[in-house]
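Retro notes, item 3 of 5
We never archived the inputs for the 2'-monophosphoadenosine-5'-diphosphate complex last cycle. Fixing that now. Sequence and ligand:
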Amino acid sequence: PVRLGVFGNPVAHSVSPTIHSLFAELRDERILYDRMLATPAYFPKAVAQFFRNGGSGANVTLPFKEQAAQLANILTERAQVAGAVNTLMKVGSGFVVGDNTDGEGLVKDLNSKGFSVSGRSLVLLGAGGSARGVLPALLSLNPAKVYLVNRTLEKAQVLKRLLVDLSAHGAENIQVVSNADSINEPIDAVVNATSSSLHNIDIPLPGSFADNAWGYDLMYSETSTHFLKQLEKAGVKKRADGLGMLIEQAASSYQLWMGGERPDTTFVMSKLRPRTY
Ligand code: ATR
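Structure as it came back at the time:
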């Protein structure tokens, strides 16, 4: 079997082994996909050991995505722009390539849910690693306006400057804001890349939403996330959590490792009950 796995901390409840095993089953391929717990100090050694012992590819999840970008031998362009790696793969005799399929995963899931970005006013909440991972992909969909909102304004300013310096598509048009409720127009789309749902706390929402507005939380959970409950109260009818993105980024990673067609995600989606509240 092809040896794959995911590095994270915590990693015990990762759904990735289930997702990748289902892809393999559907395509009649043999893989071994392990959960690999690491610490920041031990992570570089753990990665080296995994590839030395026959590993072919690995996913990387919190809190190691930035560290993985440091230790990969080569980064794809989108991993460079994201400053973070969620997919490692061995090429040739020893080089390890770092890629990032998170943005592509989000875009695929938004497409399949009919959540459109092109020509619409978009609000991205957060300016940490998660926001940085998805912002370039959202910009590539040509929103009419992008508000980048972060409690610590300076972090949003730094992120905008970074993307402008990297000539990321549409980066010049980002408007940086410290509080979403100061935005003075009805918003079509809002993506939560803060940790608000992790801590079960409210974060400020845009003051008003367009009739057909949608909202997306990068976090996912068994029940509605805190952010999606907030959106429901605000009258936003189209809502989804990040389970669809997780499955789509996994499909992109699987294709990178195993070649061939991108795995079909519909079966896995129905099996894991993605929620559109
Ligand atoms: P990640 O890698 O998941 O993005 P992070 O880098 O710690 O994690 O970023 C967390 C994000 O959630 C940040 O944008 C953070 O805002 P600050 O930069 O101002 O810290 C945001 N966040 C966390 N708690 C928040 C809160 N109570 N209200 C508003 N934003 C919050």
